[in-house]
Amino acid sequence: MPRRNRRAPGPPPVLFQPARAQRTSCENKERYASEAEARSIALMNAAPGRPAATRPYQCTICGGWHLTSR
Hints:
2 helices; 2 strands
């Protein structure tokens, strides 16, 4: 007896899987839940009287926030 509830033919679902190097790089970094939290950590690590040497950015891999010196 044939199946009645067949899926419509179409392209297979696309899964985003970043390259291994990108995932490893992200996993080795400190992850912050919000931009405010990352910014406060950057300011705490800054030398007194100087601007923060790092700035927060949102990661495209995990969606969290990391700090960069660029």
